[in-house]
Amino acid sequence: MARNDQHIRQWLILKALSTARGKTLEELSAALPRDYSRHPRTLRRDLEALEAAGHPIVNERIGGRVRWRLMDGYRHIPCLSLSPSEYAALLMAQHLLEPLEGTPVQKALVTALAKTSAAVSGHEQGTIKQLEQIFAFKLGPHKTYTGHRDTIECLTTAIAKQRTVQLRYYSASRRRLTRREVEPYQLFYADGALYLVGYCRLRKDVRTFAVERIRTLTLTDHPYQIPLGFDIRDYTQHSLGVMQGRPVSVTLEFRPETAAWVRDRRWHPSQSLSFHKDGRLTMRLTVAETRELIGWVLSFGSGVKVVSPRTLQQAVREEARKIVASTQHRVRCVLTDGD
User: Any bridge partners for residue 205, and if so which?
Assistant: First the structure.
């Protein structure tokens, strides 16, 4: 079954309950398409979930049978007309936000998609089902945020009300907890992870915080204002992902077997490519000099050579040396244990 079938089924139930007489469980079951679960226990759970979500559902016994319906004034659900490409765009957005499952933004999108699916015409329902079979999605490495929904809701409220937050944050680089008061500017999703960008009153600078490393969070009544000139795109323009650092001009040379697939991607907005007759590729870009950059270069293995700057050459060489040393140490340990 499609991932959003439960939501679509519940929205179809709401449509069925919009009639003046409402529906019995048997009539609800008959009103649903055959490819949806129609067991009475499932329908009862759906009705309870819809009531818990705030939908004004009432039930009454008429002629010895219990009927469910929507309260007067809540009965009219408009029909929508979406093109296949419009629905495909919503479907793609839903899958791209799967790492944020359980958070307000992801739940809102799933609900909106379910409402859209249920409100389209009968003819378009078949097109929707066909699209769900045509498009497939596979996410790369990512974090999940189901256990951080309270944190995200609190941050969302703080940003909307422009109130600071007090937090205990685990710094991965320093490997310790610190207490901070932060002026939250924006939630920023990049490379499969969610971050808070804001002004840290402890460090007296704009910083990036990984949401999953916020251990405790308290909303204060301290107001703040986002600087008029602040733009998240300017703040992250030199980052390969999220890490901030001194921007440097980088020149990389890729071997032909690596260049064949490197050339087809946009790795950074500043990149420019030069092609050589023998199949080599030269890339030039301006990015922050961070561990993120070192790891990215190393991901190409022997297929890339750092032409400049010298500091990056040295950093990549040293990191590669550590990898070799660590591997050799582990091999020796395995051989020793084998003896």
Answer: 200
